[in-house]
Write a structure and sequence with these properties.
alpha+beta, D-Maltodextrin-Binding Protein, domain 2, 3-stranded antiparallel sheet, two-stranded parallel ribbon, 5 strands, about 25% helix, globular
């Protein structure tokens, strides 16, 4: 996976949990260190909009920002497993 060079923004409660991604070639389990841990979905969104890093949020919560180009979807060929 190529986002190891980017800062990850995560919920405080899940900041140490590994992430499992599924793609056409199998799965990849990573445990990225969170650059910032926040206990608010709105706080994570604001941090991402400010350019502070990558967030993992349901598409329905960020669709407006994806449509406007304020955020972009990464890892389009990968699906995140249950968290």
């Amino acid at each position: 996976m190529t986002f190891y060079k980017h800062d990850i923004l995560r919920f405080s409660a899940a900041s140490a949990a590994p992430l499992t991604f599924y793609g056409s070639n199998g799965k990849d389990i990573i445990a990225p260190k969170a650059a910032i841990s926040i206990n608010s979905g709105q706080g994570l969104l604001k941090a991402a909009l400010a350019g502070l890093g990558i967030i993992i949020q349901p598409e329905i919560l960020v669709s407006r920002y994806l449509r406007s180009g304020e955020l972009c979807k990464l890892l389009k060929d990968w699906k995140l497993g249950e968290r």
